[in-house]
Hints:
Helix Hairpins
Amino acid sequence: MLVTDASRRFGVQLTIRARLTLWYSAVLFAVLIGAATGVLSLHERLEVARVDEELIAAAHTVNGVLRNEFSERLTPLEAVHDMLEELDLPLTGVAVVDPAKGVLGSRMSGPLQLDQTLILAATETPTFAGQQNEIRIRSVGSDIDGVRYHIVVWNALGEVDREEDTLQRALVLGIPLALLLAVVGGWAVGSRSLRPLADMAQQANEIGPRGSGQRLTVANPGDELGTLAGAFNALLGRLSVSLQAQRAFMADASHQLRNPVSVVRTAAQVTLSRPDRTDEEYRESLEIIARQSVRLTKMVDDMFTLALADADARPLQKAPLYLDEVVDTVARDAVPLAAARRISVKGDTSGDVPFVGDEHLLRQMVANLVENAIRHTREGGTIVVSLERAGNKVCVRVRDEGPGIEPADRSRIFERFVRLDTAGGESGGGLGLPIARWIAEAHGGSLDLESSSERGSCFVITLPASGFSAAADGRVAS
């Protein structure tokens, strides 16, 4: 985030490889600095602890030599003087303090010079002394012949400081070198890791407008870039299917619209080809034009409905209603249309069936099935529209007495622009069943061909219980 913000602030567009390298280098630099600080701090504590151990060992040595001198019945000054003469501790300052008489004797070299005040102030807890805290000093008590003496020992920290300086110089030189190697290595690794991404981008740019079958080559399907390529290929597949469906839809729509338009044009041209047409001939031509216009309008409306459905631009306008009223109304409205072919339409509903849904679409769904049944029912036959509630679902069935649907066509009837031979000789636009199925699915239900034989077919609409239970609650509240 910091690298990205900085690049935006200064107007520099960094590549992913550069950002990864900078991030990796920044994190590594912070880790190295933290590690170096920890190493220096730990080294200092360890060295001071080592000096403290040396001071304890030196104090024990002094105590042993001093006891030997006192065993020879010497005075304290003589014993301390002889002890300092015999003692072999060249890198350690030593002093013996009598609390009553002060410093009895001491031995100090150049770097170990200490003021007597600091010697007398030494305690059993190690402390730093000297003008720049360059000396470590401590006191150890010793009881000899009933007298409490204090043995004060100290060491210079010059060697510790030199080792720390050497370590600091090594870190100062090593951190930039390690960071440089990390930048070069990160750049190389980033280039190698992102190379498949560049290859995929090049392959994507080479896919032309008609290359719906082309896909990206996945070098390693198991890593993240392989997953990205797989997802992109899946997207290309969905786009290819969508484009093919769109092209098929346009081709089928053009074919379906061409027929009524051709009939209208031909009727008009034939009528206008002679100036002396009778009123009956003009009426006949206008009736043909009117029928084809109705058919064309119905087809355009259905296509518009499907286009809205595909784009999810037709939201359901749900409201409480009664499905039995919808079914009865559709059955009554279909009677005049069916009477022209001496077909009877019967509604079979039992009791109130409350529901929550889009009344206009539900009415269109049932009407499409009834109109389809009228087109395929033999002259003099009967169509039954029934509604029943079974447990947690409601079923609407439309039964006709047509010739049935061939097994090879049963899987195609819900596809767009699929038209089968009809008993009345006039087929629809092939959009009624697809629209009806979409409406059923939009309400959480389904539309299926329940049965089909030479005695007729039966379509069933199944809707969920949640719709009509909510409608019942709404009716009670109102």
